[in-house]
Amino acid sequence: MLSFSRAAAQPVLRRTFAIAGSRATIATLPDLPYAYDALEPYISEEIMKLHHTKHHQTYVNGLNAAEEALAKAQSAKEKISLQPALKFNGGGHINHSLFWENLAPSSGDGGKLADGPLKTAIERDFGSLNAFKKEFNARTAAIQGSGWGWLGYNTTNKKLEIATTPNQDPLLAPYIPIIGAFYLQYKNVKPDYLNAIWNVINFKEAESRYSSAI
Questions:
Q1: Which among 24, 18, 92 has a CA at the least distance from the CA of 60?
Q2: What is the C-alpha to C-alpha distance for residues 201 and 134, in angstroms, rounded to an integer?
């Protein structure tokens, strides 16, 4: 899948509750901004339902359970033991929340990169949009096992760069994630999936996020 994120990269789909005198947060599954079948034929209705209602919900449930346990933890050892669950489920929730917002049907904004700051930056840092897609696809397809490929804005050198993260790890400083992808469909033929997904990337949203980052 592909995703974009704003600078803070923090989902706001949360509410608070009190536990043992402290405050914890409850993550919630976001609604999709389009129908499950809206991205066909590039992403199927079946796959969208599976990843939204099952996979993403699992990350939400895992994050809530870990945060509740953290709020109740008494010792440093207990708190440290919960960090892997917080990282995995929290990253999965962040990444997927951003992903759903930043795809669009090909009949609308999907797949269309208009002239503007993002296109200019991609051409500056990669030579062309096609060259960027080729490098991005190659790096992402080479990920062993689970992980994400990213186009990130490096706040140190002020350039767009491609990076990867394992499992559900989000992209962190000095990068601000602009586009991200993880393997989803196409019966283990990653190159086919990566080539097809660009048809439903919401470049308009990506440009908004890039403009906020620079």
A1: 92
A2: 15
- For residues 27 and 14, give the distance between their C-alpha atoms in angstroms, rounded to a whole number: 5
- Cβ neighbours for 96, distance < 8 A, ≥ 6 positions apart: 1, 3, 51, 52, 55, 56, 59
**Maximum distance among all alpha carbons in the chain?**
56
- pLDDT by 10s per residue, the chain, length 214: 555 444 444 444 554 444 444 455 789 999 999 999 999 999 999 989 999 999 999 999 999 999 999 999 999 999 999 999 999 999 999 999 888 888 999 999 999 999 999 999 999 999 999 999 999 999 988 888 888 889 999 999 999 999 999 999 999 999 999 998 876 544 556 678 888 899 999 999 999 999 999 9
Amino acid at 149: G
- Give the Cα separation of 214 and 211 in Å (integer): 6
The sign of the dihedral angle between the CA atoms of 11, 64, 145, 54 is negative
Q: Report how far apart, in Å, the C-alpha atoms of 209 and of each of 47, 104, 202 are.
A: 26, 15, 11
Contacts of 139 (CB under 8 A, 6+ apart): 149, 162, 164
Strand locations in the chain (E):
2-3, 14-19, 22-27, 147-154, 159-166, 175-181
Q: Tell me if residue 66 falls in helix, strand or coil.
A: helix
Query: Both ends of the chain: CA-CA distance in Å?
Result: 25
